[in-house]
């Protein structure tokens, strides 16, 4: 391979690397970033659905959607934590219906709120 061909390939690879890094940098600074920092979380209040020890050192805040398969897959993990640690943790549930992809998520959240007003939220 000639020196000129090697330089072309090196330049091409460098261009790809710079492009990928630029995309990562730009998407990381996006206002629509999905990352949440602890400082931006709404404080736990009496309006939240709370189970366990709310004064525990570990509070798990679950943002969930009743129609979401990933949320359903996470539920057994949360149950295991609850069984294993009991009163050492607190669990807070907050609705996060993804209306765009789960057409029944919002109505399910409304139904669960109605159940909660009758003392049956966690059931």
Highlighted features:
15% strand, elongated, alpha+beta, 123 residues, three-stranded mixed beta sheet, 46% helix, 3 helices
Task: Describe the structure concisely for a colleague.
The protein is of the alpha+beta class and 123 residues long. It contains 3 helices and 3 strands, in the order αββαβα. Helix 2 links the parallel strand 2 (58-64) and strand 3.
General description of the model:
The protein is elongated and about 80 Å long. Helix 2 (69-85) links the parallel strand 2 and strand 3. Helix content is 46%, strand content 15%. By secondary structure, the protein is of the alpha+beta class. Mean pLDDT is 82; it is low at 29-36.
Shape: elongated
Low-confidence stretches: 29-36
**Gyration radius from CA atoms, angstroms:** 23 Å
Q: Strand arrangement, largest sheet?
A: 1-3-2
What's the overall average pLDDT, rounded?
Answer: 82
Q: What is the terminal-to-terminal distance?
A: 70 Å
List SSEs in N-to-C order: HEEHEH
Strand fraction band?
5-15%
What is the helical fraction, as a range of percent?
A: 40-55%
Reconstruct the topology from this structure:
Elements: H1 3-28, E1 49-52, E2 58-64, H2 69-85, E3 89-95, H3 105-117
Parallel strand pairs: 2-3
Antiparallel strand pairs: 1-3
């Amino acid at each position: 391979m000639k020196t000129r061909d090697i330089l072309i390939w090196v330049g091409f690879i460098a261009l790809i690397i710079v492009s990928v890094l630029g995309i990562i940098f730009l998407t990381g600074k996006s206002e629509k970033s999905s990352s949440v920092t602890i400082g931006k979380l709404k404080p736990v209040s009496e309006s939240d659905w709370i189970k366990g020890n709310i004064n525990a050192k570990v509070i798990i805040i679950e943002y969930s959607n009743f129609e979401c398969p990933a949320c359903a897959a996470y539920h057994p993990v949360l149950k295991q934590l609850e069984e294993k640690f009991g009163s050492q943790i607190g669990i807070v549930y907050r609705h996060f219906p993804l209306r765009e992809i789960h057409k029944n998520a919002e109505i399910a959240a409304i139904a669960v709120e109605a159940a909660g007003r009758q003392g049956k939220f966690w059931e």
